[in-house]
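Researcher: We're teaching a course module on how sequence relates to structure. For the next exercise, students receive a sequence and then see the predicted structure as tokens, so they can try to spot secondary structure elements on their own. Here is the exercise chain.
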Amino acid sequence: MNPDVAPVRPSEDPPANPSQDPGALADAPRGESSTRLVFVRHATTSHNVRAVISSASPGPGITAGGREQARNLAASLNETGIDALYASPLRRARQTATILGRQRGLIPVVMPELRECDVGALEGRGDAVAFGRYHEVWDRWLAGQELERPLGEMGETGESALGRMRKAIEFIRSEHSNGTVVLVSHMGLLHFTLNLLLRNVLPAWTAERPIPNTGVIVASYGPEGLLCETWCGAAPRTTR
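Model: And here is the predicted structure for the students to work with:
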């Protein structure tokens, strides 16, 4: 185990069935929480540079340029009070989170629910056919449709990925009811799930704003539920 990272095991309670309402957080009381969530995509890896589909553990680490990205993000968050820091178990997310927490003395807590969507047989591929198969399913997920389909043969379903993100958010909300929490994860999981869980964004709007490496999405709770404050620097102007 990496000495800079502590493990965590969230609640074992099963998530609500995401197919009933893809955008609903299970039994989330509204207007009673001041939890602020800062979702971060990990810094650049060699697979990002080479356009390789990657979800398996431990995965590639971040590049020298990626480390610089993470340091720049850490500096940009200097004025943000951060109470806790969580990361996907994949190497690139842990390394990014470690850099973000270093100046604050925060040790990232590994949360398995934040791992990337399992792409199954598409792992390690970078050809056009593989990306076509990926987006054939992932694009449907973004619309909240066909969540029962796996992302690649033997891959994860949208229902599974959405359920574990719900579980992660509810766990963090219960542990940090009045604070700002950073969660370092992956583009596939973040874009798909937050596109459905944030109550004031629409798929067409988020589709125009792909999450870059070290891109940030900030969310907090309002009367309608979990709301997006900013998505990669842009404030949403839409409601569901």
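Model: If you want an answer key for the exercise: The longest strand covers residues 216-222. The CA atoms of residues 22 and 144 lie 6 Å apart.
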